[in-house]
Amino acid sequence: MASKAKTEGGILETIKTVVYALLIAGVFRTLFFQPFWIPSGSMKDTLLIGDFLFVNKMAYGYSQYSCPFGLCPFSGRILSSEPERGDVVVFRHPVNGSDFIKRLIGLPGDTVQMRNGVLFLNGQEVPQEPVGTFDEVYEQQGPMGNLPRCENGPVGEGGICTKSRFSETLPGGRTHHVLNIDTNGFGDNTDVFTVPAGHYFFMGDNRDNSQDSRYGQAVGGVGFVPAENLIGRADRIMFSSAGRSMLYFWTWRADRFFKAIE
User: Fold this and answer.
1) Looking at 42, 63, 210, 240, which residue is catalytic?
2) Is 42 a catalytic residue?
3) Which of 57, 33, 71, 28 is nearest to 231 (CA)?
4) Which long-range contacts (CB under 8 A, 24 or more apart) does 75-83 make?
């Protein structure tokens, strides 16, 4: 009987340990950092498919989307602070509920327009300087097996896929890379968007391969994103793998480990 009681006590302690660990992990994920894996190429070359990062949830305060599955029992934001133009932000899609990661381009009250692939903010052209090309192998990438889009396409499998790369400097002086594939798509020439109060305008750095605020929600874009949908800021890549699985250690990109996100 003593042995049976000891066994049952051991099982109970194991269950309690697991429950406590899950609770601690849940609190950590809710209040501090949320893991995020990059599944698509919309933020190349800043973020590559297979990059793994933690999202800083303290950066902008908390909303209902700070909790897993959007279950925080309040609306609006608490302990909030304003995001800065140029931040790379994870947010909840206003319609389909998935988490997106894009760069914050337009603040409330801003006007945003693309003309021939060049960004205009509040009627002023945002400077771009050419900085060579972004080259990658034309092959399936990541667990989803996505193929990259190429400016020099069509490219056969195993060939070099290139995109023109530019250094773009936003108002305030923050600089980042953007990529160009063509200058004839809808996203390269748009109407003037005026960002409503309490909303933000986001774009991917891989400008011709990003469903973002330039595209309305009815056609798969995100439109204007409400402030309460912001989850956190992406500050640093922790790990990166170019393969179909993180277990394929020979595909790890060691040069991207702990890399700051600009």
Assistant:
1) 42
2) yes
3) 57
4) 75/228, 76/228, 77/227, 77/228, 77/230, 80/227, 83/59, 83/200, 83/230, 83/233
CB 180 within 8 A of CB 207: yes
Checking phi first, is residue 180 left (phi over 0); if not, alpha (psi -120 to 50) or beta? Answer: beta
CATH number of the domain within which 160 lies: 2.10.109.10
Residue 102 among the catalytic residues: yes
What's the predicted TM-score (pTM) here? Answer: 0.86
**Catalytic residue (one of 44, 102, 240, 241):** 102
Q: d(Cα 135, Cα 140) in Å, to the nearest integer?
A: 15
Q: Is the peptide bond before 154 cis (omega within 30 degrees of 0)?
A: yes
In a domain, 11, yes or no: no
pLDDT digits (tens, 9 = 90+) for 55-90: 999 889 888 888 776 667 777 787 778 999 999 999
Total of domains in the chain: 1
